[in-house]
C-alpha cells in the first residue's frame, strides 16, 4: 500500500458513516480519484477545513490494489475558495465547474491541462466575483480537451463556411449546422457567440475579460456548451438548473427551437 502525494483540487465531499468523509478530488499527478478521510467530520479533525469543495490542497493518500477508494492520510491547504462561496452566484458557478469535472473526467487518468483549466476558471470566479464568462470559457475548453467540440466555421451537414449567419447544434446530430441543414430542437448559436468561441480558443481568459462581449452572446455560448456536455455524458447537470434559474427571465431558454 504505497503512499502517494499530489497537488489536488477538491471536487466534492459526502458524509460517510458517523465521522468520515468520502472525497472526490482531481489530483495533478494521478487524475480524478475518490478517497476516504477518516474522522474528517469530527470537531478536532486533523483535516480541518482543507477538504471543502474547490480547495487547492497538497494531499497524501494510500492506494491499495483492486480498491476503488484511496485512503487520505494528510492534507495541507494551499488556497481556499470558502469565502468566495458565501456569494451565492459564485458558489453556484463553482458548483457547476465541479460537477462538469466529475462528469467528464475519467478516474485515474492524469490530465494536467484539465487541472490547470479548473484552477484558472475557479480563480477567475473567486477574484472577479463573476460567473458567466469563466463558466463559458471552462465549458468550451473542456469540450475541446475531450475532443467533443465541433468545427466552428463550417456546417457539418453541407460543409460550406458559416460566415456571419447563425448556426445551430445539439440534439441527435453532433456538429454545427447552417439554416438549411439544421433540425428541430437544436440550439441556436448566434454569430456573436460563435466569434466569442473562436476568440476563447485563441486567447487566455484574463485577456478575454477585458474584451467587449455581450451577456446574450455569453449566455448562448454557455447554453450550447452545456448542451454538448450533457449530450456526451448522457447525464443532466443538476447545478446547471440552479445556475440558469439565476439568469433573467427567459435567458436560459433563449435560442431553443
Question: What would you note in describing this structure?
Answer:
By secondary structure, the chain is α+β, with helices and mostly antiparallel strands. It folds into two domains: 77 residues, Nucleic acid-binding proteins (OB fold (Dihydrolipoamide Acetyltransferase, E2P)); 161 residues, de novo design (two linked rop proteins), CATH 1.20.1440. Helix content is 35%, strand content 21%. It is built from seven helices and eight strands; from the N terminus they run βββββαααβββαααα. The strands form two sheets. Strands 1-2-3-5-4 form a five-stranded mixed beta barrel. Strands 7-6-8 form a three-stranded antiparallel β-sheet. Strand 6 and strand 7 form a beta hairpin. The chain is elongated and about 60 Å long. The N and C termini lie far apart (54 Å). The relative contact order is 0.11.
β content, as a range?
A: 15-25%
Give the strand order, joined by hyphens, for the main sheet. 1-2-3-5-4
Number of helices: 7
Helical/strand content category = alpha+beta
Provide a compact summary of the structure:
This protein is of the alpha+beta class and 257 residues long.
Q: What labels would you give this structure?
A:
257 residues; alpha+beta; OB fold (Dihydrolipoamide Acetyltransferase, E2P); de novo design (two linked rop proteins); 2 domains; 3-stranded antiparallel sheet; elongated
Amino acid at each position: 500500500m504505497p503512499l502517494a502525494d499530489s497537488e489536488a483540487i477538491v471536487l466534492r465531499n459526502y458524509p460517510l458513516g458517523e465521522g468520515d468523509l468520502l472525497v472526490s478530488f482531481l489530483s495533478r499527478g494521478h487524475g480524478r480519484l475518490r478517497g476516504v478521510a477518516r474522522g474528517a467530520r469530527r470537531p478536532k479533525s486533523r483535516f480541518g477545513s482543507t477538504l471543502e469543495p474547490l480547495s487547492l490542497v497538497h494531499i497524501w493518500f494510500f492506494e491499495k490494489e483492486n480498491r476503488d477508494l484511496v485512503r487520505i492520510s494528510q492534507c495541507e491547504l494551499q488556497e481556499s475558495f470558502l469565502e468566495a462561496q458565501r456569494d451565492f452566484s459564485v458558489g453556484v458557478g463553482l458548483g457547476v465547474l465541479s460537477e462538469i469535472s466529475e462528469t467528464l473526467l475519467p478516474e485515474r487518468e492524469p490530465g494536467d491541462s484539465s487541472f490547470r483549466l479548473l484552477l484558472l476558471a475557479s480563480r477567475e470566479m473567486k477574484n472577479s466575483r463573476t460567473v458567466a464568462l469563466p463558466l463559458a470559457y471552462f465549458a468550451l475548453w473542456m469540450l475541446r480537451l475531450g475532443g467533443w467540440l465541433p468545427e466552428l466555421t463550417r456546417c457539418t451537414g453541407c460543409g460550406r463556411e458559416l460566415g456571419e449567419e447563425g448556426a445551430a447544434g445539439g440534439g441527435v446530430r453532433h456538429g454545427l449546422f447552417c439554416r438549411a441543414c439544421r433540425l428541430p430542437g437544436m440550439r441556436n448559436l448566434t454569430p456573436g457567440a460563435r466569434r466569442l468561441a473562436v476568440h476563447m480558443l485563441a486567447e487566455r481568459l484574463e485577456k478575454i475579460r477585458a474584451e467587449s462581449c455581450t451577456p446574450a452572446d455569453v449566455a448562448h455560448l454557455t447554453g450550447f456548451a452545456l448542451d454538448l456536455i450533457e449530450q456526451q455524458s448522457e447525464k443532466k447537470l443538476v447545478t446547471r438548473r440552479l445556475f440558469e434559474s439565476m439568469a433573467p427571465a427567459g435567458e436560459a431558454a433563449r435560442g431553443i427551437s
